[in-house]
Design a protein that fits this description.
The chain has 386 residues and is mainly alpha-helical. Among the domains are: 1-40, no CATH class; 49-216, no CATH class. The chain contains 17 helices and nine strands. The chain has helices spanning 26-39, 48-55, 60-75, 79-96, 105-113, 122-148, 154-159, 164-175, 178-182, 196-199, 203-216, 236-240, 245-248, 258-267, 287-307, 311-321, 329-342, and strands spanning 5-6, 9-12, 15-18, 22-23, 278-280, 322-326, 357-359, 366-370, 377-381. The strands form four sheets. A three-stranded parallel sheet has the order 5-6-7. A two-stranded antiparallel sheet has the order 1-4. A hairpin with a 2-residue loop joins strand 2 (9-12) and strand 3 (15-18). Helix 6 (122-148) crosses helix 11 (203-216) and helix 6 (122-148) packs parallel to helix 17 (329-342). The longest helix is centred in the middle third of the chain and has 27 residues, at 122-148. The chain is globular and about 65 Å long. 34% of the residues are buried.
């Protein structure tokens, strides 16, 4: 009798994971082929556990990288770097709700954690931590979209750069949007305040970029399509490791566990209807957004024959209806990165894509107003004093 179901079994960290049987169809067969292809491809699986182990705050790369960036932002005379830092300080002060210039006990603890010597400058330390993770996330996002759209990998360009000048040019190109522009992703780097390091380029920055690229190059992006669990927040564990647990509360860093996000979506009776809208007004690294996209994609797999539209229309519905806001620039970048990963194979179905994750304060609500003449109407949006 011909097989009518597939059962996916995988081994990870000496543990076996057995999934429930799935119907044999073109979509489960596609996943099966991805698994076969990746059996012969070297590289780590893109899992939160592996990423946090290699790039989390306890890792040598993070420890040395944060210290280097901290020294660089203190010493740099670059006007652009200083302007980005000042703007970030205003925004992050609103996020955490207290004076970031104050060297509190928690900040001193954070400084000791990263091995900062001498008197600590709290804003510079926090900005350096955020910059480290932003560099990592840009390289991660670029690598994933390049892989799924058969474009030259940015990591290989970085690793093959013959000189520091050429490497700086590659990173400058990345920060200007290079690969994202090629795929008509219009706003991935919009509002990004963490590109200052290119203008403060030196040996320590060069070393950090090379180390991140080398470690990230050991991963296999193809594993994202063989494991349905990839439709979750890949960066949350890494993101929350930026700060020791005892420091997170003071900095306004809270994280929604996966089980709670699942419970809330179930309670809302949100089961993946692509035409239903979902807004997370304080989205953090995007846990709710990514879980919602995962539910939509499962719904589509089950209903694609009867719903009457293709994957291009599905992609348009997702970016129209799954939206996030956050006031923290790093959280916005993390959520946009997760969003891109969740949409990795659908991006090419769109002529252009604006990732619907926005840097804004959702508490400051807009109000309607009339313009200077009788036919002009609009919305007045209060913003924070900058």
């Amino acid at each position: 009798m011909a097989a009518r179901s597939l059962i996916f079994i995988r081994s990870r960290d000496e543990k076996w994971f057995v999934e429930d049987p799935v119907e044999v169809n073109r979509y489960s067969a596609e996943r099966f082929l991805w698994a076969l292809i990746n059996m012969g491809t070297k590289g780590k699986s893109f899992s939160p556990e592996y990423l946090s182990g290699d790039f989390g705050s306890d890792s040598p790369i993070a420890q040395e990288g944060v210290r280097s960036l901290y020294n660089d932002i203190i010493k740099t005379s670059s006007p652009k770097a200083r302007a980005f830092f000042q703007q970030w300080k205003i925004l992050f002060g609103e996020v955490c709700g207290y004076d970031v210039n104050t060297p509190s006990d928690r900040i001193i603890e954070l400084s000791n954690f990263y091995g900062i010597e001498g008197e600590t400058k709290p804003p510079e330390l926090l900005f350096s931590i955020h910059t480290y993770y932003a560099i990592f996330m840009k390289l991660l996002a670029a690598e994933v979209v390049a892989f799924f759209h058969k474009l030259p990998t940015p990591l290989q360009k970085i690793l093959k750069a013959p000189s520091s000048i050429k490497l700086k040019e590659e990173m400058d190109d990345l920060e200007r949007g290079s690969i994202f522009r090629h795929l008509n992703i219009t706003n991935f780097l919009e509002g990004d305040l963490f590109a200052w390091y290119v203008d403060a380029w030196n040996d320590s920055v060069e070393k950090l970029v090379k180390e991140i690229a080398t470690k990230l190059d050991a991963y296999n992006p193809g594993t994202l399509s063989e494991d349905p669990r990839s439709n979750r927040d890949l960066l949350k564990k890494l993101y929350q490791q930026m700060f020791p647990k005892s420091v997170r509360h003071d900095l306004g860093e809270y994280y929604t566990p996966d089980w709670l996000a699942e419970h809330v979506l179930n309670d809302l009776e949100y089961f993946g209807d692509p035409d239903k809208r979902l807004l997370d007004p304080a989205c953090g690294s995007g846990t709710f957004l990514i879980m919602a996209i995962g539910r939509i994609r499962r719904w589509y797999d089950q209903n694609r024959e009867s719903c009457g539209y293709d994957e291009g229309e599905l992609a348009r519905k997702i970016v129209k209806n799954i939206v996030g806001f956050d006031l923290n620039p790093l959280a916005v970048m993390a959520a946009r990165t997760n969003y891109l990963i969740a949409m990795r194979d659908l991006i090419g179905r769109l002529d252009s894509i604006e990732i619907p994750v926005y840097l804004c304060d959702s508490i400051l609500t807009p109000s309607e107003y009339s313009g200077f003449d009788t036919w002009t109407t609009g919305v007045r949006i209060r913003t924070s004093a900058l």
